[in-house]
Design goal:
Number of helices: 15
Structural class: alpha+beta
Shape: rod-shaped
Radius of gyration: 44 Å
Distance between the termini: 130 Å
Helix content: 40-55%
Order of helices and strands: HEEHEEEEEHHHEHHHEEHEEHEHEEHHHH
């Protein structure tokens, strides 16, 4: 091939395929394109040297060995530029001349500019420029998607935190009962009916204690008290609807056994809080406060009440009123836990608890009397043992009083108090 023809061929190929190598009849490199010299950084006054194969196997590239493999994709490099590879095809030109036409694996504008090229230097028909544009566009889209994902994750984190905070004010179980899947679905007037156990608890003796405390000490005391006591409500399948100062209103779905167990656990937790939980540090050698709990069972109406600027979860039911009154009665009797007979009848394993009947009681604000039982399991061991062993005597005395046999009942109470002199329920009936 004449030098003139070679020059023409070189110009044509550099327009169509800038990166190529031409071999002559002697299998010697006859020409390396100007762009390829630039890419491989081969000075113009330096001979081409040797082209080496990286794939399909490592070695010196000898075109005559590839007459049957001209359609395979090869990867070649020049001398020590193994990282600056060129991928393409070996094409026979006739007269036993060969040309290797390929493109460097450039994937970004930055790489192209680093090699000293512009996008316009690439031939339109090669598809390399289109690939770079597509890759760059994909990377931009990916960065945008990653940014959007990060913003979404941040928003989800904020929303999750808000839901957790909201859940501390309005329990998730309360929303579940209303048929609401998330706090976002909550709306004024949402309501539902459910058959539940209702608990009212109140810390007795706290008013006197609080008179000797600063505001900071009052909050510290209440939070320490609730930290020990309130988790027992959740642990037994209930949820707190309201904290009212040193009191609590909670609901329990399912069998009433859970509410009774929660009440017992709460009494024991208060004992632990005073003994080892730091609550005793606030007492200043004063008598420890006691926890009075009333439990009832029935159908309640739960819903969200208020106005546009302020909502509140609400529970409305006669069972709520009964539980509140029982809590008040427990204070008068000096009892720890009082429950209705209706709740006791709904229990699945009533034999798992020690209870005694304390009479048909007229509660404040109600015309009908309610049969009430006292749960003894939260009492200290010695008191609990005495009360359990002698409960039939007390129940008999209360029955006599209800039947109008006042003298007989009072005599029985006095005999009982000789055995259990500190039983506050017996003292309560004797004082009536």
């Amino acid at each position: 091939m004449s030098p003139q023809l070679i020059s023409i061929a070189a110009k044509i190929f550099e327009r169509l395929a800038p990166f190529y190598v031409l071999w002559d009849l002697g299998d010697e490199i006859e020409l390396i394109s100007t762009p390829l010299r630039k890419y491989w950084k081969v000075p113009q006054d330096v001979e081409a040297g040797q082209i080496h194969l990286l794939r399909p196997f490592r070695g010196k590239l000898q075109p005559q060995h590839f007459e049957e493999l001209t359609e395979i994709i090869l990867t070649v490099y020049w001398e020590n530029h193994e990282k600056d590879v060129l991928r393409g095809e070996l094409i026979p030109l006739g007269d036993k001349r060969w040309i290797f036409v390929g493109f460097p694996p450039i994937a970004s504008f930055a790489e192209l500019q680093e090699r000293g090229f512009l996008l316009s230097d690439l031939p339109l028909n090669s598809g390399v420029g289109d690939s770079i544009i597509a890759i760059e566009s994909s990377q931009v889209s990916l960065r945008q998607a990653q940014k959007a994902l990060q913003e979404l994750e941040a928003s989800n984190t904020v929303l999750s935190n808000l839901n957790q905070v909201f859940g501390r004010f309005v329990p998730g179980a309360f929303l579940d009962t209303l048929g609401l899947k998330s706090p976002m679905e909550a709306h004024l007037g949402a309501h539902s009916s459910a058959q539940v156990s209702v608990m009212f608890g109140d810390l007795r003796g706290f008013t006197g204690l609080s008179e000797r405390m600063t505001a900071a000490e009052i909050f510290a005391f209440l939070n320490r008290f609730l930290a020990f006591v309130a988790p027992n409500i959740r642990n037994n399948g209930g949820f707190v609807v309201h904290y009212v100062g040193d009191g609590v209103l909670a609901l329990f779905s399912g069998a009433p056994d859970n509410s009774v167990q929660a009440a017992v656990d709460m009494q024991r937790a208060l004992t632990d809080a005073v003994a080892v939980g730091g609550l005793g540090d606030f007492l200043k050698n004063k008598e420890a406060p006691r926890l009075g709990i009333g439990l009832s069972f029935g159908t309640v109406e739960m819903g969200i009440i208020g106005e546009s600027g302020r909502w509140d979860p609400a529970v409305i039911s006669d069972a709520v009123n009964v539980a509140a009154r029982l809590q008040e009665l427990s204070k008068a009797m000096g009892a720890q836990i009082l429950v209705t007979s209706e709740l006791q009848k709904g229990m699945k394993k009533v034999e798992g608890f020690h209870m005694r009947r304390v009479g048909m009681v007229k509660l404040h604000g109600r015309d009908e009397r309610v049969e009430v039982l006292e749960v003894l399991d939260g009492l200290p061991l010695a008191d609990r043992t005495l009360c359990i062993l002698n409960r039939r005597i007390l129940e008999g005395a209360i029955h006599d009083l209800e039947a109008g046999h006042i003298e007989k009942g009072r005599d029985a109470l006095q005999k009982y108090l000789k055995i259990c002199p500190t039983d506050s329920t017996a003292l309560y009936y004797l004082s009536q």
